[in-house]
Amino acid sequence: MSPLRRISRALLAFLLMLLVGTIGYGLLGFGLLDALYQTVTTITTVGFREVHPLNAVGMVFTMLLILVGAGTALYLFGVVLEALIEGHLRQQMERRRMDRRIDRMSGHIIVCGWGRVGRSCVQYLSGLGKQIVIVDRDPARLQDLEYPNVLGDVTDDSILQAAGIGRAQALIAALDSDADNVYVTLSSRALRHDLVIIARARTEDSKSKLLRAGANRAVNPQLIGGRRMAAFALQPNVAEFLDVVMHDDTLDYRIEEVEIVPGSPLVGRSLKDSALRQTTGALVLAIRTATGQFIANPTGETTLKADTILIVLGTPAQLDAIRTLGGK
Q: Parallel, antiparallel, or unpaired: how do β-strands 196-200 and 283-288 relate?
């Protein structure tokens, strides 16, 4: 039982004894304030004199109240002292503050698993100013963690709900086991059909299983890491440029995606007519159509349609300008 629950139960028992004592002395002819005063001095064993002389019934009632009420008061004092000495009360209060903080979050990213992959994801997302909730079953990993976190088995739906899955923008399943990642993906997809789920795959065979389980993307970090190392060996400048514009906060340029929503002034216009380069300064590198097809290095005659995704290179101000035109 948690320390806060023990304290609340002990406090409830103490208040009940105060009520019983006050009612009892009231039936013996005491006024309300006198009855309450007599009860408090009795169960706390202060030892003051009786407010009014007691008859035989009053003496028996007082003895019973001392035996039960004093024990309740001592128990309450002991529970509070134990919680303060062991630090449980402080931990519980911090946990409640963190839970309230998570409850106020919306559009955050849930990262399941605080291992090497999870840490790398959080470091990148934190650099972008995203709100993050970390879930892990190992209390040692979460100790003194600065980010909002939930301790528990992420395969449990109640833990996902405690992490705010109903209000989250995306979930990253970065657990050590492919089986756990598949289970988390299934549970998350059942709870939120529109949630963006990115799952870690330790092997190539597990990628198809994760996609069938409901993941939007299945990523093999070892495979991607190996390809990046090979790219640096063969085309170091290209690889470094892409690495910088995607991950380096010191460079002002970024590559981001911008969606053209229905009703945008860009819908139905060609790239040449929209004059995005001239009006915003951003460079359209590629287009992904609503059907999922990529058009790299699109020509000026390419027509922009609703639900089209633009892959754009530019500064934050230029990207904000093109987002405004896109309707986002």
A: unpaired
Going by C-beta distance under 8 Å and a sequence separation of 6 or more, which residues neighbour residue 22?
Answer: 32, 35, 36, 39
**What size, in residues, is the chain?**
328
| Enclosing H/E stretch for 313 | strand 308-314
Q: Which helix (H) or strand (E) holds 51?
A: none
Closest CA relative to residue 118, chosen from 98, 100, 145, 91 = 145
- pLDDT tens string 24-61: 888 888 888 888 888 888 887 776 777 778 888 888 88
First to last CA, the chain: 48
Angle, vertex CA 48, rays to CA 42 and CA 49, nearest 5: 100
In whole angstroms, give the CA distance from residue 93 to residue 99.
10
> Average model confidence (pLDDT) for the chain?
85
| CA–CA–CA angle 19, 21, 24 (5° rounding) | 105
- DSSP H/E element including 140: helix 139-142
Q: Which tens digit of pLDDT belongs to each residue from 83-138?
A: 666 655 566 667 788 888 899 999 999 999 998 999 999 988 888 788 999 999 98
Longest CA–CA span in the chain (Å) reads: 105
Give dist(CA 298, CA 285) in Å, integer: 7
User: What are the DSSP E strand ranges found in 139-193?
Assistant: 149-151, 170-173
Q: Give the pairing type, strands 170-173 and 196-200.
A: parallel
Instruction: Let me know: does 133 contact 171? Beta carbons within 8 Å.
Output: no
Residue 212's contacts (CB-CB under 8 Å, 6 or more residues apart) are none
